[in-house]
Design brief:
This protein is α/β, with parallel strands linked by helices. Helix content is 24%, strand content 27%. It has a single domain, classed as Alpha-Beta Complex (Spore Coat Polysaccharide Biosynthesis Protein SpsA, Chain A).
Length: 231
């Protein structure tokens, strides 16, 4: 399956670390975050990959140049950030009218991606995508999801105080060709995937909960936690 890795952000919450290194390349126990993603996806038999870049893009391009995945990666450089859905829309041709993956590459994730994609293959017929979820110890800082008895999303609570639960959206998505086609039609003007797209398809999003380590490394506290973890 083709994979779009979102890696263009400035990582402002991680400064001063990200003053000199893009967030997608910060090391977790000595290994760049982007390399962890590429290894996991390759192990699951997925690819090729597209990586969007913007902030300190030259570092990302150089890293991939010397990576074993260099011949599997295409870059989508953005002079101005397009937004998570905007990047997807700009690069729809990459998916070749097939199901694909959209991943926020600034999370430290050790989930079983093969199991996640198997869940996507076996999703209920009305569902047009599958979202990875995880349990968080800081639900007010995450997008919390509510599910029905079949594991289908029936509600979102985006970074609110006292959300109803701690099951969080991991921003790892398997998207059907059916949904991708909508980005050329009724969804063609959206910019943000989380706030503009997901709410349009409530009741049609299947979920897969991982029990493996999953950490948003966007803050110094969480980045430290990731580096203190044992993979």
């Amino acid at each position: 399956m083709r994979v779009l890795l979102l890696a263009a952000g400035c990582g402002t919450r991680l400064r001063p670390l990200t003053n000199t290194i893009p967030k997608c390349l910060v090391p977790i126990n000595g290994q760049p975050l982007l390399d962890i993603w590429l290894n996991s996806l390759n192990k699951a038999g997925q690819g090729p990959f597209m990586i969007n870049t913007h902030y300190l893009a030259d570092q990302v391009h150089k890293f991939i140049e010397f990576s074993p995945y260099s011949n599997q990666v295409t870059f989508a450089y953005e002079h101005e950030l397009l937004g998570t859905a905007g990047t997807l829309i700009q690069n729809l041709d990459f998916f070749q009218d097939q199901d694909g993956m959209l991943i926020h590459a600034d999370n430290y994730c050790l989930a079983d991606l093969s199991a996640f994609l198997k869940a996507h293959s076996n999703r209920p017929s009305e569902c047009v995508m599958t979202m990875m979820t995880f349990r968080t110890d800081s639900p007010s800082t995450c997008g919390i999801v509510e599910l029905d008895e079949r594991g289908i999303v029936i509600g979102f609570h985006e970074k609110v105080c006292n959300p109803p639960g701690n099951l969080a959206n991991g921003a790892v998505y398997a998207i059907s060709a059916e949904l991708l086609s909508r980005f050329s039609n009724d969804l063609r003007d959206v910019k943000d995937f989380s706030t503009e797209v997901l709410h349009c398809i409530i009741g049609k999003i299947y979920t897969y909960e991982t029990s493996a380590l999953f950490i948003d490394v966007g803050t110094p506290e969480h980045y430290k936690k990731a580096n203190n973890s044992i993979s």
